[in-house]
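User: Please predict the structure of the protein below. I'd like the answer in structure-token form so I can feed it into my own downstream comparison script.

Assistant: Understood. Taking the following sequence of 452 residues as input:
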Amino acid sequence: NVFYESKDFESYLPYAFTELEVILGKSLSIVVATLQGFLPIVMLFGIHVYFSGGNFLFTIPIALIGALVLSAIVYVLMFLLCFFLAKIPLFRKYQSVIANVLIFGISLGAIIGYQMILSKSVVNTFITGEMPIFLQPVLAFYNAILNPFDMSVYPMIGFVILVFVAILLLVKFIVLPNFYEAVSQTSSSNVKVERVKEMELDGNKLSTKFVIRYTLRQLMEGSVLTQTIIAAGILPYLLLLPTVLNFSSGPTAFSFMNFLNINTFLPFAMLVTFIAFFNTGGNNLLAVGISLERENYYYLKVLPFDMHQFLERKFWILFAIQSAIPVILMTVICTVLRLPIYMTLGIILSWGIISLGLSRWGYARDLKLFTPTWTNVIELLNRMRSGVKSVIFAVVLFGFLFGAIYLLIHLPEWNRTFVWIITIAYVVLILGLSIFATFYYKKKLHELVDSE
């Protein structure tokens, strides 16, 4: 975004700025923005220094060099890969989609990989008493901090520094001479113009096939695809991944149904509510579905077809797309946990009713806050969202999760009849509110259309 989507590079051309100066200036802004990720790395090496018991005159410089060199290698490699990506014609054509999918895929892979490595490392450390395996470059600096006079670790450190120098030479002789050209080619791509240009109507006939094709074309905005479909659909399940992996590796005779009874039904119902809120409680596709039209919305309003029908068809198309990933993941998890089919269908149905109510609310809210000019979907998701509202939403959201954990521990101690009463009351209340929201906000949407 900073190097290849930014629109301010042309303003630097009349001035005597070299490519290196521009890159260093842009890099500084990125480093400042990513300090929250960089500082823990420095702190990790600092902790190693503190507990090593070695001479600080040796350990502190080694720790600083390790933190800076390893972080710089990652940063410069990313910069180099971005340059080569920007030279690929297919990437320039679909840069927003490919970039966001890559970012999300790498982030998701890192999260899943970290959880799997952590679970294996904890078991390995507990059984063998040995520390988990580090990446060799990190291990070399770690061992140097523990024992600065151990000469066996310095060949690896020297190799890491040579790799860093080689990457810098690639940047100097390949990237810098072609940097402005790559930027101008990449930044010339404009998703918004392309979408408006390709939009066409089949006379006055509004067919479902056209609405589907037209809606799918709008989803080619990369941030829409990753933030409202993939991220919203996958993130809540990452919290459940370690538990699911543990159950899947259990004995074949063991069934998750052994845990599911009157004392645990309410916590699991709250967990389903948590997942539904995470999937569709604001940061979802339908919360920006109408604003995806941009200025096309005003054009569609004057065409001779029923706008109510168009928005209704678009709602169900977006709802189906938005629900695909959560339903698939929910089915997979239920299968791994060996739940019966009727239980799986009940969970999906309950999730669907809650999600439908939240989606209707987000769809009507989007029309009320309609924003035709936006550059990133994050702008749409943050409309009218103050810090206080965000905190309240987070408290409510994770209240379902932590409430479920609390009840899972303490419900067996409560009176069985009372547990029955609050369980039925909770299910009726949540599903009742969701059904009410579905019809109320559908009516609200049509009232907003008529009032325009």
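That's the full token string. Residues 169 and 247 are 50 Å apart (CA to CA).
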